[in-house]
Amino acid sequence: MAPSRPAAPQEFAEAVAALSAAPLPAAIDLEALPAPVNLAPFAHAVGGAVLSASGDEDLATGRLVLLHRPGGHEEWRGAWRVVVLVEADLEAEIAEDPLLAEVGWSWLMDALHDHGAGFTAESGTVSRSSSRGFGGLSARPATTAVEIRASWTPLPDADGIDFAAHLHAWCGLMTACAGLPPEYEGVANLPPAGSRR
């Protein structure tokens, strides 16, 4: 029998409550996911999708995991860690842009700054992939996609850590990858997903 996990501390329960209570953009749909059990003593996970105007297509999908290690973690430089994943389809010519990785990473940095989500010790990758069907799947259209994986340590302000701000930053990254109109002037986005098909 696996050893039981310790009861979650109050600060972790409050962080999860803040994520659950955060208002969301209309285009974002969230659902609870099973939390990973081997990354930290306490974890909470949600999955998300940016829905098309009709609501029948996911323009981008993602996952956010909040990790907590009381006493802190040397590599995190803190007791908390936010880990995110975002995936979205792209036009082939956009996926071939040599600056796609830099632009994708800038979307994350802009989203964190724009939502006032203080952070440190950020790391991640921006990847592109292509898929083409053959044989029985040859009628399936070729697709290209971007995948952004990132993590960072949230920093407190005078009132503590604003966990909702980090959730909103992840939502902002998903909407940027989906090609929805920018929430902030000067933020570049992909063309709307409907125009990419």
Descriptive report:
- It contains four helices and six strands; from the N terminus they run αββββααββα.
- It has 197 residues and is an alpha+beta fold.
- It has one domain (33-180).
- It has a six-stranded antiparallel beta sheet with strand order 1-2-3-4-6-5.
- A hairpin with a 4-residue loop joins β3 and β4 (78-90).
- Residues 183-197 have low confidence and may be disordered.
Which regions contain 5 or more consecutive residues with pLDDT less than 50? 183-197
SSE order in H/E notation?
Answer: HEEEEHHEEH
Biggest beta sheet attributes = 6 strands, antiparallel
Strand order within the widest beta sheet = 1-2-3-4-6-5
Provide the β-strand percentage band.
35-45%
Label the structural class.
alpha+beta
Could you report the average pLDDT, rounded to the nearest whole number?
85
Rg calc: 18 Å
- Determine the number of helices (DSSP H or I, runs of at least 4 residues): 4
Tell me the number of structural domains.
Answer: 1
* First and last CA, distance: 50 Å
Count of DSSP E strands? 6
Helix content: 10-25%
Overall geometry = elongated
What is this structure, in a nutshell?
By secondary structure, this protein is α+β, with helices and mostly antiparallel strands. The chain has helices at 10-21, 92-95, 100-114, 163-178, and strands at residues 28-33, 42-51, 58-73, 78-90, 119-131, 143-154. The chain contains 4 helices and 6 strands.
